[in-house]
Each structure stands twice: as C-alpha cells, then as structure tokens.
Amino acid sequence: MDGDELLAAGDRNLGAVLRHAAATTPDAAIDDDGRLVMVSTVPTWPGPYHNGCLRLDRTLPPSEALARADEFFTGRVRGYTVWIAAHADADLEEAAVGAGLTSLGDASAPRMAIDHLPAAPPVPAGVTLEEVVDEAGRQAYVDVTAVAYVDAFLPAEVVRVQLANLESLRADNVRAVVATDGDEPVAAAMVLASDGIASVQLVGTVPAARRRGLAEVVTQWTVQAGFDLGAEAVVLEASEMGEPVYRRMGFVELSRYRWCFGAPA
C-alpha cells in the first residue's frame, strides 16, 4: 500500500475497532451506515473509543455528521468525542468548533505504521507470553489493563465493562496476549485485523513492571499476529509514553488524530 491507501485503510480499520467494541460490550449502542460510525459502549466515559463519532466518508458534510452525532448521543451520555484525522478532517474540526464543541488540539495521537516484523526483543527472565484463549486469559488481560491505564485517566471500571466478554479479545480477526512474570500478569496487548491491515490496541504494562521492555515484547507479538491474520501492514495510535518504543521498533508516523469534545443537547 502507498501512504494514501494506508491512511484510508487505517481509517476503515479504526471503524472496525469501534464496531468490534460495540458488538462485544454489554448494552452498547451503535449507529453505522458505513459513512459515519457512532458508538456508545460505556455511558459514563466520553472517551473516543467509548463514546466516539468517526466520519469515514469525507464527502459527508460536517453539518450532517455533527447533527447525527448530537441526535445519537442525546439522552445517552453527558459527553462524546468526534475523531479528527489530520489528513482529512480539517472541515469537520472547523465545523465542530463552530458548533460549540471543544477542540482538544493540544492533545493528539500519532498514527504510526510498520510493514515488516521487527526484531524479537529479549524476553526478561521469568516472563512468559500467553495468548488469550479463555476466561482466565481474559481476566488476566483486564487485570493488567485496569491498572496500566489509570495514569492515562481511563477508569478501571470502564476497562472491566468494555472487556467483559472473551469475544472482545478473541475473535476471528482479533488476538490478544498477556505477559506473566511468575504468577503475575504484568503486560498485555491486542490486535484487530481488517481492510488488509491490523491495528495494535490497548498496550499496557503495570507500573511495577515498567522499564523492562515488556511493552515492546507484547507489541512485537501483536505485530506478528497481525501479519498472521493476513495484514500487509500494522498500525497503531501511539500514546506519549509508547511513541518512543514504537519508533525504536521501526514504526513510522503517517498522520495524527485529534479530537473534539461535545455535550449533546
């Protein structure tokens, strides 16, 4: 894929990530016509993966996208987030701000990609990798993620709700892994394949086990799993903490995502 194709496939894959969350989270709601994807998985949390609006067809007028988002989220949540792709959504961002939504322009996540398997990093002594295949693996993944993302302002209860079913981590196009140190789960990551690519999601390490290279270990596992699922490239949205790790592995930045936050009528 060239750069434009990879960006377009990545946007569609992000839509698949949102759809997967809606399909596997209890009592979730979704409005998806292929042009605009809106999901509400956890009513109490307005984050982009939990109450998010993603425009996939850039010919859809921003005014229509925002009106539909307001209608969908009204009565369902206190706040929601509109995804803004730096490579395609300048008009949507301008319209969102004009409509009273708040641009979180100072916060952004680089969309990064890799088209080859990075070298396998050394696995620390005593650490084993276990693919999530059953309820015990799901619980271990949740235990890691609920702790790892507290300092990223993602409440543990939101993690528990969104990963309440094994299918959230194990499906035809989804794989997940947990790194265990002795009997303690210490790091985790998952990958979802669609549209010829795969995206790495929810990479996390518990604070007590950081700076041991575990994020790189589980990410490398998911990249391999993504290629095994037929992907031509693997993408991710990097956090500030994770970006140096991914650059070291060979991921390159293609674009960035920003967000606009709004409260429905």
How would you characterize this protein structure?
Helices cover 32% and strands 29% of the residues. Strands 1, 2, 3, 4, 5, 6, 7, 8, 9, 10, 11 and 12 form a twelve-stranded mixed beta sheet that branches. The chain folds into two domains: 3-110 and 256-262, no CATH class; 114-254, Aminopeptidase (3-Layer(aba) Sandwich). Helix 4 packs antiparallel against helix 5 (156-162). It has 265 residues and is an alpha+beta fold. The model has no long low-confidence stretch (mean pLDDT 96). The protein has seven helices and twelve strands.
Question: What's the short version?
Answer:
The protein has 265 residues and is α+β, with helices and mostly antiparallel strands.
String of helices and strands: HEEEHEHEEEHHEEEHEHE
The shape, in one word, is: globular
Contiguous helical run count = 7
CATH superfamily of the largest domain: Gcn5-related N-acetyltransferase (GNAT)
Weakly predicted, low-confidence segments: none
Give the overall pLDDT as a whole number: 96
State which percent range the strand residues make up: 25-35%
Largest sheet data? 12 strands, mixed
| Span between termini | 41 Å
Overall radius of gyration? 18 Å
User: How many β-strand stretches?
Assistant: 12
- Quickly count the domains: 2
CATH fold-level assignment of the largest domain = Aminopeptidase
Oligomer: single chain
Percent helix, as a range, is 25-40%
In CATH, what is the class of the largest domain?
A: Alpha Beta
Based on secondary structure, the structural category is: alpha+beta
What would CATH call the architecture of the largest domain?
3-Layer(aba) Sandwich
